[in-house]
Amino acid sequence: MTPLPPAANRDLGQHFLVDGNILGVIGRLARLDPSDTVLEVGPGLGVLTVYLADHVSKVHAVEIDRKLGPHLAARLGERTNVAVRFGDALSLDLAGLDPAPRKLVSNLPYSIATPLVVESLDGLPSVESWCVMVQREVAERFFAAPSTKAYGGVSVLLQLATRRTGFHPVSRAVFRPRPNVDSALLAFERIPLPASYARVKKVVEAAFAHRRKTLPNSLELVGVAARGEAAQALAAIGRRPDARAEALWPAEFVSLAAALP
């Protein structure tokens, strides 16, 4: 018998997936294949974990809450293709998982969704596609267009490294406890990273660090480039020296990084 799960931990931002009706949508958007190795972060009560285990070759499930261990073990039963690892996904060496995951499929804890996805872009090179449950506003931010309120550094980095392949709004009723925000499933797949991605990432983060300031001012404040150098680089890519980060398209940040000394 599966033991009763502990109450959701508010400090960890837990909202357990409890409605199995959404699993088919996840499977479709994730394009699961029997040969897949999948990384799941935040398995919670194991509803998605069991579904994944029954559809793919291997599941690496990373959970920070050890209190969920007995419940997860009981729910998984005799399945041998799931490796549960306890710890903080933001600090564990996920790049060292064996076999290396090809897909990241998760109901991500709200508090780590953005940093985990961003760091996985270059930190988990084996991952070819993502299907993640996140707050709807986060999903919209990931692929927002320039000059919109949602557009930011995260939008730029996601769009330089991936392309969106699916979006599905999710009812609050599929979680326990019910969250106070709307959620969405977002699927995206890897595209080739710019050769200078590490440099571009540094420029993007600096550009949006002071988004109300002009790009030259923001880059100088963070110490990436002097104001005059940044203004010259903007001119080289056809932008005015008073341009702000939110005005540039993702590809323009690649050109800007190349034009900076």
State Rg: 20 Å
What is the CATH homologous superfamily assignment of the largest domain? Answer: Vaccinia Virus protein VP39
CATH architecture of the largest domain: 3-Layer(aba) Sandwich
Strand content: 15-25%
Strand order of the largest sheet: 4-3-2-5-6-9-7
Instruction: Determine the N-to-C terminus distance.
Output: 64 Å
Q: Kindly state the mean pLDDT as a whole number? A: 94
The number of distinct helices, counting runs of at least 4 residues, comes to: 10
| DSSP strand tally | 9
Number of domains: 2
Give, in order, the helices and strands.
Answer: EHEHEHEEHEHHEEEHHHH
List the uncertain runs. none
Helix coverage percent? 25-40%
Question: What features would you describe in this structure?
Answer:
With 261 residues, the chain is an alpha/beta fold. It has 10 helices and 9 strands. A 7-stranded mixed β-sheet has the order 4-3-2-5-6-9-7. A two-stranded antiparallel ribbon has the order 1-8. The longest helix has 11 residues. The model has no long low-confidence stretch (mean pLDDT 94).
